[in-house]
Amino acid sequence: MVDPKGSSSWLKSLNISDIFVWKDHGEYGALVAKIISILVPVFFSALFFGKKKGKIRGVPVDVGGEAGYAVRNARRAELVEIPWEGATTMAHLFEQSCNKHTRNRFLGTRKLIQREFVTSSDGRKFEKFHLGDYEWETYGEVFVRVSNFASGLLKLGHNIDSRVAIFSDARPEWRIALQGCFRQNVTVVTIYASLGEDALIHSLNETETSTLICDSRQLKKLDAIRSKLTSIQNIIYFEDDSKEDTFSGSSSSWTISSFSEVEKLGKEGPVEPSLPSKNAIAVIMYTSGSTGLPKGVMITHGNMVATTAAVMTVIPNLGSKDVYLAYLPLDHVFEMVAESVMLLAGCAIGYGSPLTLSDASNKIKKGTKGDATALKPTLLTAGPAILDRFRDGLVKKVEEKGGLVRNLFHFAYKRRLAAVKGSWLGAWGLEKLVWDTIILKQIRTALGGQLRFMLCGGAPLSGDHNI
Ligand SMILES: *[C@@H]1O[C@H](CO)[C@@H](O)[C@H](O)[C@H]1NC(C)=O
Ligand SMILES: *[C@@H]1O[C@H](CO)[C@@H](O)[C@H](O)[C@H]1NC(C)=O
């Protein structure tokens, strides 16, 4: 958030309430809540609220003719625009990071071992997954896939002056497709998966998108609205573990290819990359907007690199030992930047989903591991709405237990919070050890036990992160 103009458009698209998936799932939230409502107040009070109350933390500036405030990182005298020399676009940054971290783990996913349906007492059916351990691709391997995809995209006949849209849940191929497009200076349109048909039609039409990348279960939906998708020529779909949604392909005017077919095309016929310049538009992000049709926010490579570089300066000791759990939608700017930060630092990114996050999550088969316990992340992102839900879930659980547990919890929490806020009279040393062992550790292990930092964005955090 360096460029005042750029940052306002970034902020507009940060509407965390759109992370709809969280709304109906209090159960895993409760568990996850435990750890987060402890850690978060701690981190954020330390980070942001630790200073004296009432102090204005901005510099008055002229914002396009109006008076406004600029908030800058006090540790830097200069604007942070790039992470290092030569990394001026997301394409340059990616290539350089892959060269630096060739052998590091980069993108990880869990294979589906088993899928089953459980019928609850009221007759409703629930899908449950048994997922395997994380399987990884290195920076070097991903770079090869990105180059192949970039070549394949052109071989497929994508016109380099038209846009590519991605409409899918987050997964490694999402990132690979994104970086592949950047490598050929192709602007990527992203559309919130929650936006629905009209928004999709509008966004694709407005941007004259000619290639749409989606997951295979979207294909049938697209076929139903094909007459309205006049600009589309190519469809590339991500293959799925489950076979049930395969598409018969009644259409003739679209070229429909699987992601791996495109990679293969590119491998067989490499095309020279055409890296973008700093001012080229990297993504056009369609966000909810509060009224009418969704609006596309245009973000240049320069914007995105600057934000990524700036966020990186905020996370202490970020490095290749860090493991990041990516479970938010990638069509959200917050998640896209967070992942870019990880990429920059050579971290491992393990993909998960809100519905499989913890052992107690709705879609996790009983007795098997959720994403957090399988991955043991050190870093996580969340928005205020999510944190509030976590806290509420935790408070509820604790209140239900009542009695001693409740009193102990509140006491331990208060003691540690005081310590973390900087008071020497808070719980340190032996007392800290005691609270950690009997109360706080349980809460931490719900998210893998290694978490050390959370990135938060979207809207101001509620001041009420104390219980
Ligand atoms: C697509 O956009 C054009 C203008 O660029 C407009 O005339 C047309 O009605 C739009 N079509 C749909 C289906 O929205
Ligand atoms: C990249 O594409 C943009 C359009 O988004 C164009 O203005 C620019 O000249 C292209 N840059 C290069 C280096 O080809």
Automatic annotation (TrEMBL):
SUPFAM superfamilies cross-referenced by the UniProt entry: Acetyl-CoA synthetase-like (SSF56801)
A molecular-function term among this protein's GO annotations: long-chain fatty acid-CoA ligase activity
Keywords, comma-separated and alphabetical: Membrane, Transmembrane, Transmembrane helix
Pfam families: AMP-binding (PF00501)
Residue ranges annotated for the AMP-dependent synthetase/ligase domain, each copy included: 130-463
Transmembrane segment boundaries: 28-49
InterPro entries: AMP-binding_CS, AMP-dep_synth/lig_dom, ANL_N_sf
Stated name of the protein: AMP-dependent synthetase/ligase domain-containing protein
